[in-house]
Amino acid sequence: MFSATRTVRYLVQRRLHSSSRIPPSVIAKNEFSIARLLGYTIVGSVATGTVYDGAVNGFENIQGAHRFLRSLGIGLSISLDYAWSLKGLTESDGVYETVLQEVHRRSAQKLLDGCLANGGLYIKIGQGVAAINHIIPKEYVETLRQLEDRCLIRQPDEVRSLFVEDFGAPPEEVFASFQYEPIAAASLAQVFRAVTHSGEQVAVKVQYADLRKRFDGDLRTIMFLQKLVALIHKNYNFGWIIDDLQGTLREELDFVHEGKNAERCAKDLEKCDFVYVPKVLWGLTNERILTCEYIDGCKISDRRSIDAQHLNVSEIDRQLFTAFGRQIFSTGFVHADPHPGNVFVRKNPSNPKRLQLVLLDHGLYEQLTPDVRENLCRFWEAIVLRDHPGMEKFAKLLNVSDYRTFAEILLQRPLQLKGPAKTRLTEQDLAYMTKQAKEHFDRIMTTLRCMPRNLILVIRNLNTIRSIARDHGDPIDRPTILARCALAALCPSRLNVRNFVWVTFRRLRFEFLLW
């Protein structure tokens, strides 16, 4: 461990020395993004295996070492590529942007190739990186999106063996028909299309056979690599996040747990007829195999299919934010992985003139406590009302002292002090947020550490659906929709006359300030 640390420090010193001729303006522009991308790279880049203890043995231990070395190699390769390729260039050089884009493209492809080679937990991290499309270069976003549902393809023999272990028969006997060509493949499992003996079309989610025995080693490896990142870039220590999420990530391996989450989600959103959750077939479900009804729809990011069906993108995004706003502010039971591969769009079967969202993959959820949920609602209301004392009060109840930074983390846009509410981000707003992320990263990390831990995955949810809306051209006023969801959660439907008058006044004042 000590020798590895010294080696990394030596490589970093050599890298800095080799970069010494890069002009300060270039370093200033790229210091944050390159450092952060290197952090993401080494933390997850493809690393999932056993590194420094005997979590697993034999063949898997060898494979774990391969994954670790591959991860480290990719991280260093990306870092050195930026330093070498930009050496001697300034922002005013005509080729600067072209060279930078090419480095982004090469680095993104290295990340993708590594993710697909190693699999497991880092594919989830890669999906998360792709969701922060307002921070990382578009070359990374476009490349890493392949991790949404086209990841690892395993051989049919592995699937057949798992069915025999769990159900005592191969898939072609358990089902009337079973297509071995997966319709989707992600971080934990492949999804296949099948037909039950009763004639029902179903989607069958089959966990990768080696996933469970690799899981503990994966986590330890990621934590170890995170420590290496902290040695290189002391401000980029995300280990506490990984440590806090271990239990939640472990629950995602249990498909029975996922099925129960799906049923609870369906119940929580039953009043939202524009949302549908596929029903679970419990007789064909266990911890490693999940069978649900098959839904024919298109990914929420598939603009070509959406346009071909003449579906309204603004309405899609409005429903998306309303559904998850209800989860965050009303039920507190929040889908933590709503990337485009997990949200489908279709015409409502009961009313083809309307559209419907289909929510998939319910393995990763977060449960907010009632007090956190209520204080978050009141904080969001205070944002809309420009009530700074209120923001400060409810931020402190959430253990956050810097309410301005907290508000901007949630909104992913500048906190307005006055004037009419903005419906969309301007170029100046984007520049401001990028500058804040670069110049006040310590403040952001302090805020994230202070706030309740169960808000981490809520922020992941908000960032992911914001990413979807951004790709659609930001056709809606996202903060306003979420603010209305927060106010609805604070105002009960059953009221006496006195409270009815007060709630009505409160809502009218709220709507007036939204204009």
From TrEMBL:
Specify one Pfam family: ABC1
Spell out the SUPFAM superfamilies in the cross-references: Protein kinase-like (PK-like)
Where does the ABC1 atypical kinase-like domain start and stop, copy by copy?
A: 147-393
InterPro entries recorded for this chain? Answer: ABC1_dom, ADCK1_dom, Kinase-like_dom_sf, Mito_struct-func_regulator
Superkingdom, taxonomy of origin: Eukaryota
Q: What CDD domains does the record tag this protein with?
A: ADCK1-like
Family label = Belongs to the protein kinase superfamily. ADCK protein kinase family.
Instruction: Supply the name of the protein.
Output: ABC1 domain-containing protein
